[in-house]
Each structure stands twice: as structure tokens, then as C-alpha cells.
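Both lines are quoted verbatim for reference:

——
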Amino acid sequence: MEIKWIEDFIALAQYQSFSRAAEFRNVTQSGFSRRIQSLEQWVGADLINRSSFPPTLTPAGQLFREAAEDILEKLFDTRAIIRTDQRIGGKGVQIAAGHTIALNFLPGWLRALSTHFDEVRARVIPGNVHDSILMLVNGNCELMFAYHHPELPLHLDPTRYEYLTVGVDTFMPVCKPNQRSAPAFRLPGTNDRPLPLISYTETSYFGRCLAVLLAHADTTPALRLHYESDMAEVVKKLVLEGEGVAWLPRSSIRAELEAGELVPAGTAEWQLEVQLRVYRDASNHSEFLESLWRHLRAASEAAG
């Protein structure tokens, strides 16, 4: 039995929808259903009444939910205590962020921060969106950075978790240039010559961004999947090697665009604007975090 099965089950009990719970857990609905079935096999009883709409808990499911929530709470509380003992003291902050944000945004952001706060020590923990959210919810970081799009909400309780918008990024299609410095692959492509696509796994955040963008496109592009990864840096490397066209955040390819190593593979209609947000738990009233948040709010208001 795996902890993630219990977390899946609790999410399903909360949302009463396989599709919404799967989205929250950042997994495909089919994969989510298989994990719930695996948990039921481990327990030895049906936990979900699938004949009702919305799906409800069986008596066994209600009993298991009470025990599961108690077990997870104690487990995560213990982990938080252990991690707190290893936290950075003084003017220190633990930051959870997606890999792309950690690589391309946070270094400059931390340098700018050091001009306002002396001797700030930061520990950056890169991961996927779901893991970053769990770190924030479980009290294992002070700040969490993530991209935001209105159609891809993070499902955080707004009464508990505050956020500030600290930047805007553009999710855009790029490819290697040809000998004439024009795009080697140009959207939308043609049915007889579909463009080789270097894409993301469908459950990754950028994979979901691409799905949103293509769903709103006036023209259906002719694409054939060539490679797939859940990490933008892997996708970027394959594009730089000329393997196809891919959507990447502008912040991660700014230098390559300026140097002409990559070029836009389509017009602005193929781009998606996303916000970059920083979140914190409003119940954390540590003196340094409060001071830091006031500074970030003032900077955000001045920029807005």
C-alpha cells in the first residue's frame, strides 16, 4: 500500500468526482482510478459506491476515511517536526518551486532580494507543481512559486494561502532556424507534412498548458508526437538539437532567442500568457516572513 493511494482516496472523498480529484492529484483519470482500485484491493473491500452520482463512500469507505485522515495528519506532522529541526535559522527561507522557475527565475529574484535583506539564506527545493503544493500545505516551506492560468487553478484555499503576482511569462512555440534564419518548422503545419512535436506528459503543468492553448486555437495544427518529457529542460535540449517544435516558457529560452539559436515557430496566436505567483501560508506569522511578505507586496503593487 502506498501513501499516494490514501491521498488519492481522500481527494476523491472531498471532490466526489473522479475527474476533479484526478486533476487535483495531477494524474490521468484512468491512472487515478487504477490507484483507487489498488487501495480497495489492499483493504479488501469496496470503498467507493460507483453506482451513485456523485460517487459516495461505502460504509467501509467512511470508516477508512476517518482512519486515513488521522494517520496522514500524524505522519505529516511528524515529518514537519523533523524538517523544521533542519530548517535554516535566522533570516532563512525554504522555497518550493517548479524546476523551470527554480532554474530561470529564482536566481535573479534572490539576487534582487539580497539588496533589501542582508544575509538572507535561501534553500530552494525544485519539484513538480503537485509536490510544491504539498510542501506548502504540509508546512515544509515558507514560500511556494508556481505558474498560474485561469483554466488551470491550483486548488488552494484562498482564505489560508495568500499569493502575489511576481511576473508574467509566455508559453511559446520555438524551433531551430534553417540556413536562412527562418523557422525550420512553422505552425500550423500541413496534413501531408505534420510537424514533429517535442511535448510534455499530459499530467505535467506544461502539458496541461499546451492542451489549453490548442483547445482555444482557431486552427488545428498538424503535429506528430516525436518525443515527450515532463521536464522543460529536457524538451529544450531536444529542440536545440533540431528534433522538432516545442512550446517553452520564454524565460527559459531568452538567451537562445537573442542569440538566434532558437526562433518562434508561430505567431502570437500560438502563445499562452501565464502569471508567476508566490504563495505563502497566511497562518505563518514568523517575523522574517512577515517582513519579507510586506516587501514583496509593496514591490508587486509598484509593478502593477
